[in-house]
């Protein structure tokens, strides 16, 4: 696992030990960043269920102004801190080592994000809880892009009731990226 492009290009990143996280492969990460490349420079990027922090660090390397990471696991939080130090992005990042909804509530009034990426545990409905919260949150701008990495069979039929729409779905062999926007 490494930073693919930008100022920290080719720097290797650590992944948390154990089987609790599934780091996004470099190939899928590269595909995702090719899709959002025009929206990254100058963006505020939120990386939820961040694991190693690789998505937010990739965004900062590619010109995002700031990235915020949220992960409540002890090992992932330590790994994110180590990767932030290693990439020397301490001044462009912040880590909330707490549960996602608690972190979102704590961020209200402090941030507005251009891009929100989340990779929650599959098939537990956590993405729906987060999207429900974000639907009424000041953390979203009018044109914020929310990206959910999810299992292929994840249901997003509820988006309409949150005032959101699925603008794009990119499917891979084992998972997908759902691109969600406000209506």
TrEMBL record:
One of its GO terms (molecular function) is nucleic acid binding. Keywords: Methyltransferase, Transferase. GO terms for biological process: rRNA methylation. Residues 1-23 are annotated as: Disordered. This is Site-specific DNA-methyltransferase (Adenine-specific). It comes from the Bacteria. It comes from Roseburia hominis (strain DSM 16839 / JCM 17582 / NCIMB 14029 / A2-183).
